[in-house]
Each structure stands twice: as C-alpha cells, then as structure tokens.
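Hey, can you fold this one?
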Amino acid sequence: MLGPGDDAALVGAPDGRVVVSTDLLLEGRHFRRDWSGGYDVGRKAAAQNLADVAAMGATPTAIVVGLGVPADLPLSWLDELTDGFADECATVGASVAGGDVTRCDLVVIGVTAMGDLAGRAPVLRSGARPGQVVAVAGRLGYAAAGWALLEAGVPVETPLLAEAVAGHRRPSPPYAMGPLAAELGASAMLDVSDGLLQDLGHVAEAGGVGVELDPREFAVAEPVAAAAKELGADPLEWVLTGGEDHALAAVFPADVRLPPEWQVVGRVVEGEGVMVYGREIGRRGWDHFR
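Sure. Predicted structure:
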C-alpha cells in the first residue's frame, strides 16, 4: 500500500493476520559472486523467503531487505540484485516494500517476507499423524547437483548440466502449491531448504511420529542424473539430502486426490525419525552448526 520512500512501508493484512519469515544470506556461505551474478542472487534470496511463506499455506505479499555491501561493489551488480528481488516477487504478485543498506566487508543480505492466509488456518509442521501420506511438489536435487558441478570445476558443456547449475543459482519454488495444499487439507508442511530427510525430520519430531520414504517413488530429473553421471555420484543422495531447491513437502490424508504437481513419496507411521526403504543414508542434510 505504501512502498519505499518513507521511514516505513505500509502493507495490507486483509486476513487480519500476517505470516512473517526471515532469512540471512552471507557471501561465501550461501552464494559466491564468482559463481552467481547479482540477478541470480537476488532471485535466490527472495525465493527462499517467499517459499517459507507459501509453506505455511499463505500467499506472499511483500518483502523488505536489509543489505550490507562493500564500498567497491560494482553498481551494476547491485542493480542486478535489486532487479532479481523485484522479478522473483513479481512471480507471486508480491512487492519489494523497502529496506536498509549499510557498508560491510562482504555482501550480506537479510530478507523478511510477509504473506496473507486469506482466512485459512496456517499449516504447521506439527500436524502429521500415522496413516497419512507424504508428498513433494517442486524440484529436488538440482541445487546440490549444480553446486557439485561448480565445486568440481566441471565445464558446463551440455544443456542438462547447464540446467543443473542454473538450479543452484536460482531455485524455482512451487509457490502456488502451498495455498493449494492448505485447501486440500494438508496437516503439515514445510519448504525443503536443508535437504528432504533433514526437513522431514522436523515434521516427524514436531508431530511425534515417524516418516517412511520409498526411494522407488522419487523421479530423478534428467539434469540431476546427468550431473551424477558426470561426477560418478548417486543422484538419489542429492534428491534426499540436497538443500536449497525450496520444494514443498507436505502431509495429507491418505484418501486425498492430489493434483499431478504433488508426488506421493512416503507415509507417516508410528515411531520417530525418517527412514528410507532399502537404503543407508549417511549425510542427512545441511546443519549450520553440525
């Protein structure tokens, strides 16, 4: 309702409640300027926050940005960054409502996103119950595959490898699937930021249940498979433990009729933790302090 130009923005809350999420991105930790341009970093920074809002069953409405930059940062990189913020927000009809900038030794980005529930109850992590099904919407494994290619210094000479690298630089969350999942009766949901096994572990812990996944139900995308072949890696490991794709994982009643965007990959059971049929998985996902 009122954007940049004053001391604060004015954001409408037609539902009477506001869903709020915030994330911090540090140069060298969450992105590298020699790997990603400013536009990609802007899209990624906005996407990971907008996905959190969608994972609550809400529609994103606005973001505000705190930005620390070195004095010698090229102005063109900063212009690309802000264009990335705006264009990612535009994909969901949200706005960049304002922010703050300060001098810093490296690029630091703090994004806070807001959203509207449109009268719906928020979908929490704690609602999973035995007998329900676990489903995923969106891409898995792209970000991990692209990171592995960049880290290995592999020349990206084919369209499939280029697509995997693009998936690391710029995620594509299925925003619309969050509110849709809420309407379909999802009892628990989150976005996959630290790896599917790690994040479903939060659902299992919050609900006091176990989650069993069937690896036969996972579709490994061609770019992920191509990257794995190039590096001699197991693509399913990236699908299960790679973070930053910002897919959505949700728990639904067993008799729900899901649209094709949602793929059932497992079920909720009595017990605790996350198990994968027939596979030993060592690394479970990303943990900043492990």
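The mean pLDDT is 94. Let me know if you want another pass with a different chain boundary.
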